[in-house]
## 1
Amino acid sequence: MIHVYRRRVFGYECDIYGHLNNANYLHLYEEARSVFLEDIDLPVRKLMSMGIAIYVTKVNLEFIKGILLESEVVIKSWVVSGSRLRGLWQQEMFVADELCSRITIEGVYASNGKPRRLPPEVWVVFEKYINKQRDL
């Protein structure tokens, strides 16, 4: 499954040149992943109530084309691979169907600050959304 998230870029997110500030790409990608989790009925609040956290362990962010103030961005997100202990997400950011950025996020599931396998009933939800091939 490819999850699609849309939103506009606001002035407070831009640098002095009117481009989306580099640090804010991470914010937008995080927003899109959070909405993805909500849409599959595993919002962060629910995971926290179950004692589960997702800790980011590695980020690879590629800037391809600048994004301007007031642009509408479309972020496509999917889970590439995973297990009950770790996950690998990929996301791409577009403006008007033009690829502007891509990111790969690796994470580990944790409880009380230590790696922990997801309970089977949570893993089965994640497993349904693994999309090994990018079929946009």
Note: The chain has a mean pLDDT of 94.
## 2
Amino acid sequence: MKNLHNFIIAGLCLLLSSCGTVSYFGDTLTPATTNVDVFYSTHDVTKQYKVIGHLNYPNGESPDVIKAKFVAYAQKIGADAIVITGSSVDTRGQTGSNVVNADALKYTN
């Protein structure tokens, strides 16, 4: 019975850890923003900007879900826009991890 209990606990932990969260490295500005522009290339950004950080999210959900998670996180950190730069595979560890990357922007003008 104890083995079954441990198996169930391990399964729940695995299930919960498979839900992705946005990882962020960069500055957090205040106040939070309510509108975040979404771009797929820096060439499309017409305003002057500063990159305030970098986001990534595990690739495995629909593009719309990932974009919504990026936008929600960008609002919390005070970004005016994000540029979704694509996906990458990190193979430095034991297993590769496929992630979607984005840059968080703050308009300067």
Note: The chain has one domain: 21-107.
## 3
Amino acid sequence: MLRSATTAAQANSPAMQRPAVPELVAVKHLTQFDLANRWRLSHRTLERWRYDGKGPTYLKLGGAVVYRLEDVEAYEAAQQRAAARQAAAQLADSEKFALGMSI
């Protein structure tokens, strides 16, 4: 095997150095079947949600529907906050009712 006859000084020169390549961020995608398993529901429910304009944002790559993991997690977080607000409102209403206040 023949080696190039470059010296250490040549190898460290700016002309010989490779340009910096930005790190690629791996994007995780879930299929509708992966998401259905994650949420323990039917993949048909996800299909219906897409038709109705509900659920997390999705992508169509070719003919395949995929969900970005970050979109799924954002949707889950939004649902969690909404559920917590709803529970707090129901608790407040039940306390008002117990005190004889009108709602």
Note: The longest strand covers residues 64-68.
